[in-house]
Specification:
Elements lengths: L1 E3 L5 E9 L4 E3 H4 L7 H8 L3 E3 L7 H15 L9 E5 L10 H9 L5 E5 L5 H14 L5 E9 L9 H4 L4 E10 L5 E8 L7 E2 L3 E2 L2 E2 L9 E2 L1 H22 L9 E4 L4 H11 L10 H4 L6 H11 L8 E8 L3 E8 L3
Parallel strand pairs: 5-6, 5-7, 14-15
Antiparallel strand pairs: 1-9, 2-8, 3-4, 7-8, 9-16, 10-13, 11-12, 15-16
Helix pairs in contact: 3-4, 7-8
The protein binds acetyl coenzyme *A (ACO).
């Protein structure tokens, strides 16, 4: 699916992020599994990640991120009419985390539901919220992306525990008087889904006692997929919007692995200093990755009015998605 934004301009007017306090370094990981800081840094660029406390669930991470985004947008939660959470680690399958979060925030008039698209969840949710607003079904939306992936990792599997971390980010979307979002591209390839799966988590099989309740990943296949779609999806949305790669001021790829991100930036021809990188400090936070990186870029003064911002996510499904926007400040 690909398209140029139509109708009334819609943009991000508030951004927030939250990560748990506990830092787990590569050295600490090497006391749990057979790995070491040198291997992890060389293969992934990840130095440390945040891990949720046992009592912290998805909505505990989503809530402070959502509150920060609403505060930045100077918006009362009661004025929201749409609330979407993109996550593969909701507090529980139902009630949805979106409904729970809406209740805690006091978003009593909001339609609220969860959306599953692996690590691309935030991008999918962003496009859905945009589409609902462009169609006139919603005026003000809150989109949260986040995960507590530490809960679904096999902590004896060195090939996955080194990659992931916990975190959440949130954005408020509103109608504005300047362009904001310019276009989107989303895709899915279920044939490759087997390379990144949580086999024992649904109606085909629920059996977390056997190890099927943990993430299964074919790292090499995911690596090949990721390096391919980060480039093809970005090129597709740029072309559809009539923009060129030289116009991109801020590039926010999914924070999966520095090698994957560097490869994509080089292949696209985006100078590294225009790319936002925080995977070194948080690892791959799944649906939290892009809003967390956006919030950090904003805090560092890197998002200026008029900047062309390109975001591309990818993940389980396999899925991918890009958005191009002009930052509206
Ligand atoms: N520490 C030390 N050694 C390790 C570790 C580890 N944590 N993990 C694997 N190794 C070993 C392997 O056993 C192998 O040893 P061998 O040569 O003796 O057999 C060797 O290191 C090389 O293993 P590879 O799997 O070939 O390593 P590769 O260079 O492919 O890097 C990695 C592995 C980092 C997982 C890479 O494939 C990758 O980043 N893939 C993409 C993963 C990803 O991004 N997933 C999520 C994306 S989607 C989403 O966000 C949900």
């Amino acid at each position: 699916m690909i398209g140029k934004a139509q109708g009334a301009p819609i943009s991000i007017t508030g951004l927030g992020a939250y990560v748990p306090n506990r830092i787990v370094t590569n050295d600490e990981l090497s006391t749990m599994v057979d790995t070491n800081d040198e291997w992890i840094m060389e293969r992934t660029g990840i130095r440390e990640r945040r891990i949720a406390a046992p009592e912290e669930a998805f909505t505990d991470l989503a809530l402070p991120a959502a509150r920060a985004a609403l505060a930045q947008a100077s918006m009362d939660a009661a004025d929201l009419d749409l609330l979407l959470c993109a996550t593969v680690t909701p507090d529980m399958m139902f009630p949805t985390s979106s409904a729970l979060l809406a209740d805690t925030l006091g978003a009593k008039d909001a339609a609220a539901y969860d959306l599953l698209a692996g690590c691309t969840g935030f991008m999918y949710a962003l496009v859905q919220a945009y589409g609902m607003m462009a169609a006139g079904l919603a005026e003000r939306a809150l989109v949260v992306g986040g995960d507590v992936l530490s809960r679904i990792l096999d902590w004896t599997d060195r090939s996955t525990v080194v990659l992931f971390g916990d975190g959440a980010g949130a954005v408020v979307l509103e109608k504005v008087d300047k362009p904001g979002f310019l276009g989107f591209e989303l895709g899915a390839d279920g044939a490759g889904g087997i390379h990144l799966s949580l086999p024992g988590s649904g109606s085909r099989r629920i059996d977390d006692a056997t190890g099927n309740g943990f993430v299964h990943m074919n790292g090499r296949e995911v690596f090949k997929f990721a390096t391919r779609v980060l480039v093809s999806s970005a090129e597709a949305v740029l072309e559809r919007c009539g923009a060129s790669v030289e116009d991109v001021d801020v590039y926010v790829p999914h924070q999966a692995n520095v090698r994957i991100m560097d490869h994509a930036a080089a292949k696209l021809g985006i100078p590294r200093e225009r790319m936002v990188v925080n995977v070194d400090r948080y690892g791959n936070t799944s649906s939290g990755s892009i809003p967390l990186a956006l919030a950090e870029a904003q805090a560092a003064g890197r998002l200026k009015e008029g900047d062309l911002v390109l975001m591309t996510g990818m993940g389980a499904g396999l899925t991918w998605g890009s958005a191009l926007m002009e930052w509206t400040g």
